[in-house]
C-alpha cells in the first residue's frame, strides 16, 4: 500500500465529507429507494433506478475516502522547521516575471488539489518546479501552456 502525502487540513476535510456521506447522504438515499419502491413495478421505475445509481456513487465515494485515509501520510507543515524552502504543505508566494502578477499556491497531495482554491498537486509541473527551491530563487517552469518564470517572494508554513 503506497502512502499518499496529505496536509492535516486536507485530511480533516476528507473526514468531514465521510461523515456527511455516511450520516446524512446515505439515509436520504435509503429513504428515496424506499419511496420509489412503494410506487410498484421496479423494472420501469426511473426514480428507483436513479436512487440506486446515486447509492452506488455514494458508496463508491465512501470506499474511496476510506482508502485515502488508510493510505494517508499526514504532513503537518507547522511542525517542521524549514526556513524559506518550498516543501510539501508550504504556501509559496510568487511573482510571475512575465506579467508582474502576484500569486500564491499551497503545495498539497492529489486528493486535495484544487486550482481554483490555489491548492496545487506537488507532482504537477508547477508543484515539481517549486519543491526544493528557496525564498528569492528565480524559477523557470515548463507548463502545458508554455514556460513560466517566477520569483519566489516568500514561503510560509501555515
Description of the structure:
With 158 residues, the chain is α/β, with parallel strands linked by helices. The chain is 39% helix and 26% strand. The protein has three helices and seven strands; from the N terminus they run βααββββαββ. The strands form two sheets. Strands 5-4-3-7-6 form a five-stranded mixed beta sheet. It has a two-stranded parallel sheet with strand order 1-2. Helix 1 packs antiparallel against helix 2. The model has no long low-confidence stretch (mean pLDDT 91).
List the main descriptive attributes of the protein structure presented here.
158 residues, 2 domains, Helix Hairpins, alpha/beta, Chitinase A, domain 3, single chain
Which CATH architecture of the largest domain? Roll
* Helix content percent band: 25-40%
Total strands: the figure is 7
- In angstroms, what separates the terminal alpha carbons? 29 Å
Query: What is the top-level CATH class of the largest domain?
Result: Alpha Beta
Measured by DSSP, the beta-strand proportion falls in 25-35%
* Main pleated sheet: 5 strands, mixed
What radius of gyration results from the CA coordinates? 21 Å
